[in-house]
């Protein structure tokens, strides 16, 4: 490692520089004072390389013009005489200011005259009376990344008498993208940098530095030391400090101003005028802020962070940056343009608040992207959807009659309403894509008819109703098991000739007692659910694999393959993440998933009685935040533009790698009956897995994209992406060693974990079941 000789001139200079690193107060010398004259002489004669700047004559000239504007019309020689007379002994006129950190000595007007010239061009946007009022005000700024721009703008306008600045951090090279300073200041304290720059603008301004930043120990002193602050400007990153500072500021009736440097977000809280105003407009009222300082993980802090920042109101690019945080970027982005803009806005609002020209409180947006914008050359096409009315009982009756399905089975048993409801309750607990519950049951003349309700089955990832057919197959399996437990023998048949509307017809008669296997599986129906947790990985035994495989092969043509090797599971995770991102980037798929399928509150889920409630997804706070950000289409478009979104892969990879195995169910062809039978087989396996203590998480998005890719004009994506999908499908087939004559129909994770505490809601019986006329 390179080291300097301790006797070298460069080493001596470096050591001297280090001694000056914390200096930010200039030395002000008045040569009419004997002591100051001695110091001045020492600095001039004993400081190597000192730079001296003496423009006092020009400053006096400008002073005279400020005091008497018409003096500019005076003859030049008369003006020179007045200047010479005023200057007298020019060395003693005014003050000499020594800046030790830059080794500069500057001759300036003394404070009163300096103030006249410095503020002359503020008139009359700021009057003399207002300027005098501002000179009595105390402002505190917490955080100097954004706060530096605020502080310097306030200093240039002379918008305060005392400025307290607090930041514990040192300048890094990456900070210079938004902090106006030189590279020579890297690793200097931000407080020192800002105080120095203010001193170089105006050496008479009073700046007090809190180099350790704001802490619990010094917060009260920051707010009240040497007199209470007249305004607190919050630009710090610490959320507990934000809240604690406001809590005390509210008690002290100190107004608070905060600028967010994204979308020009402005928060004003006039605690001086509204002592009972809730902090941060009540956005954190539901949170226990006393707990925040004890929280360890980012995930635990997310509810607090989102409440303060208002994640859903961030700009699309900031949302995209939040998604990429700790994936392709390491910290929140900020731009010099936004920070400088924010500094100007904050200084302007500060002046108005301190002069009591602005009394409003609230959160405001000065979003230039919305205020000044071109019409896009290509507008995002609105996704047009045709909403179908749910299948009505009358339509069902007409269909049954028209297609000669109304004849009664004289040998069949006429089920009671309680028996029917027992079967329907079991059937409707079956899984369905997006929890769309596409089934519609109708009982007439001793026959139970099963229909596909197309109004619920129009999803982008339900091409040709394949996902709905599989879901209906699962409902059939539940119905058959429930019938066996009720000692009902079932005679049933699929009706593919009537697809997609009419799926199957069932008739019942007295049967034998159920087998132990049927009782066991039927008992799992209320326990079975989709589980998305990522537990500690546990092995699956060969015995369990054999049992589950046997359950699958009870359906003719069905095959089940498990992949247990971690390397192969990781490859499957990568395949799944590719198609998950594709689902985000295709507008129709994005609309389907995040607008039609997702339910963002429990209340919304209860009202709709379908869809996936975000509270049922076993997500961490961080991942729930990520899901919420996905709703912004502009953010998604930007992510695609920068090839982003890799952060979303993290969750899916984590889920896959925590799995005991990944399973794939295949059938010999892709006919309607095959998809229905795949659902029957999948549900039987799922119930069996539940009986063994396993959890199941379907991951069918890749398979559906492969299916859509095979259908001509089904995917509105580039040929390059289609080719990539084709290659991805080949990779999946190779991993599972799938034969060419088999169609992939159901892929899932299997793992050991505790049950999910929240379950998707099911539709009420009146929406899915009816009894027709005899």
Polypeptide structure, described:
This protein is of the alpha/beta class and 774 residues long. The protein has 4 domains: 17-118, no CATH class; 127-373, 3-Layer(aba) Sandwich (Rossmann fold); 393-525, NADH Oxidase; 542-752, 3-Layer(aba) Sandwich (NADH Oxidase), CATH 3.40.109.10. The protein contains 29 helices and 22 strands. The strands form 5 sheets. It has a 7-stranded mixed beta sheet, with helices on both faces. A 5-stranded mixed beta sheet has the order 14-15-13-12-22. Strand 17 (598-599), helix 22 and strand 18 (612-613) form a beta-alpha-beta unit. Helix 11 (298-309) packs across helix 23, helix 20 crosses helix 21 and helix 20 runs antiparallel to helix 25 (646-657).
Features:
NADH Oxidase; seven-stranded mixed sheet; alpha/beta; 774 residues; ThiF/MoeB/HesA; Ubiquitin-activating_enz; Rossmann fold; 4 domains; 22 strands
The CATH homologous superfamily of the largest domain is called: NAD(P)-binding Rossmann-like Domain
Supply the helix-strand structural class. Answer: alpha/beta
Query: Order of strands in the sheet with the most strands?
Result: 7-6-5-8-9-10-11
- Secondary structure tally: strands: 22
Q: Please name the CATH topology of the largest domain.
A: Rossmann fold
- The CA-CA distance between the termini, in Å, is 96 Å
Question: What amount of the residues lies in strands?
Answer: 5-15%
Rg over C-alpha atoms, rounded to the nearest angstrom: 37 Å
Mean pLDDT: 91
| Principal-axes shape call | elongated
How does CATH name the architecture of the largest domain? 3-Layer(aba) Sandwich
Number of domains: 4
Give the helix proportion (percent range).
40-55%
GO biological process, one term: cyclic threonylcarbamoyladenosine biosynthetic process
Pfam family, one: ThiF
Protein name: ThiF family protein
Domain THIF-type NAD/FAD binding fold: 125-278
